[in-house]
Amino acid sequence: MTTNDLYFVVLPLIHIGSGLTEQTLTLLPDKNFATEFYQDEVQNYIDMFENRAKKYLSGGHVSGYNLQTEPTEDGRFLVRVTQRVA
Description:
alpha+beta
């Protein structure tokens, strides 16, 4: 089994044509782009990801994900996602 280390990134999106805005959660392999979460919000993002990952992001070569929080110097948290692939 092989793994990929990825990090949570929350991106605000603004649709130019309609003006609608939204946030998306994505995964990037570079820790430098990871979003730093406050303690009172990090678990909500983890729960949201785990719920969606089971339904929509597993299958084919992807067998699952392991999530781990990593504290930052200022007391916030990064979320490292280890993607398991075969």
